[in-house]
Design brief:
With about 325 residues, the chain is an alpha/beta fold. The protein is built from 10 helices and 15 strands. It has 2 domains: about 1-115 and about 295-325, Alpha-Beta Complex (Quinone Oxidoreductase, Chain A, domain 1), CATH 3.90.180.10; about 125-265, NAD(P)-binding Rossmann-like Domain (Rossmann fold). The mean pLDDT is about 95.
């Protein structure tokens, strides 16, 4: 038996609860992992609360991330004792995830725990930080350099935004952080933001083109925010879009793309191939300031994750939340 959060949906409704689970109920997979740490992402909050149809099969253990130790393997790349990390691949949606003390998954979904991090630190990064790194890599590959101008980061107090600010500032970029929480200005500047703007500047319907402001953008918000970010990006700049906190819609025109040559990169972290994942984690090990990571990380027990999932959706959570599944 092991403890985990189990989500059920039946005639009694949609509900999530911490309970004892028999190991025999673990799903198919060729690697079994003793989970040490997990984390809460926006998608996990949606899964736990049922506010969006994230979970596709029931019962389901949520949690799109975990870090732990292999205890049994029938996969050639892994053996008992290996330290591993998992992000995405539909885990926590269609396959039991990481908010439990044990997981069974396909070995092809795992990556080695980078030597620069302990398991807890890897989960402080989680899918949010790994996605932030994918965004930074997209801007770099586009050719955007620190001297080209400001980089806008939307949803700045969230997991993606917080890590993106720290990464970009550490690489020498001038970061403008967009947030709806003005009281967090000192915190965002401590992460490395050069300046702060109110998210209201971007979140309402805007013009097809606005004043050129950003050499690049990391957007975790979507909807009008993404449309306005594109409309105010400089000539031949780039926008890396990875989230939909405001909405899935994109109420924009083609003007920024055909009149200014702006490029919109869609950042997929869920199904990204192994070489992309390993590059992102290697860069995180090199470029992310661990001290800043610790400053934006809150630790909770498994039993607290259900309540905190609701807080996360309500915008009450700053930075990253790590879950100690063993307490």
């Amino acid at each position: 038996m092991f403890k985990g959060i189990l989500i059920n949906k039946d005639d009694a409704g949609y509900r999530a609860a911490v309970q004892d689970i028999d190991k025999s109920l673990l799903p198919e997979g060729d690697v079994t992992v003793r989970v040490e740490w997990s984390t809460l992402n926006y998608k996990d909050g949606l899964a736990i609360t049922g506010k969006s149809p994230v979970v596709r099969r029931f019962p389901m253990v949520p949690g799109i991330d975990f870090a732990g130790t292999v205890i049994e393997s029938h996969h050639p790349s892994w053996k008992a004792g290996d330290k591993v990390v998992l992000n995405g691949w539909g885990v926590g949606e269609t396959h039991w995830g990481g908010l439990a003390q044990m997981a069974r998954v396909r070995g092809d979904w795992l990556v080695p725990l980078p030597p620069a991090f302990r398991a807890r630190q890897a989960m402080a990064i989680g899918t949010a930080g790994y996605t932030a790194m994918l965004c930074v890599l997209a801007l770099e590959r586009h050719g955007i350099k620190p001297g080209d101008g400001d980089i806008l980061v939307t949803g700045a107090n969230g997991g993606v935004g917080s890590v993106a600010i720290s990464l970009l500032a550490g690489l020498g970029y001038a970061v403008v952080a967009s947030t709806g929480r003005a009281a967090e200005e000192a915190h965002l500047k401590a992460l490395g933001a050069a300046s702060i703007i109110d998210r209201a500047e971007l979140s309402e319907p805007g013009k097809p083109l606005g004043k050129e402001r950003w050499a690049g953008v990391v957007d975790a918000v979507g909807s009008h925010t993404l449309a306005n970010a594109c409309a105010t990006t400089k000539y031949r700049g780039a926008v890396a879009a990875c989230g939909l906190a405001q909405g899935m819609d994109f109420p924009a025109s083609v003007a920024p793309f055909i009149l200014r040559g702006v490029t919109l990169y869609g950042i997929d972290s869920v199904m990204a191939p192994q070489q992309v994942r390993q590059e992102a984690w290697a860069r995180l090990g090199r470029d992310l300031d661990i001290a800043k990571l610790d400053a934006i990380t809150r630790e909770i027990a498994l039993g607290e994750a259900i309540a905190v999932g609701g807080e996360l959706l309500a915008g009450k959570v700053r930075g990253r939340v790590v879950v100690d599944v063993n307490r």
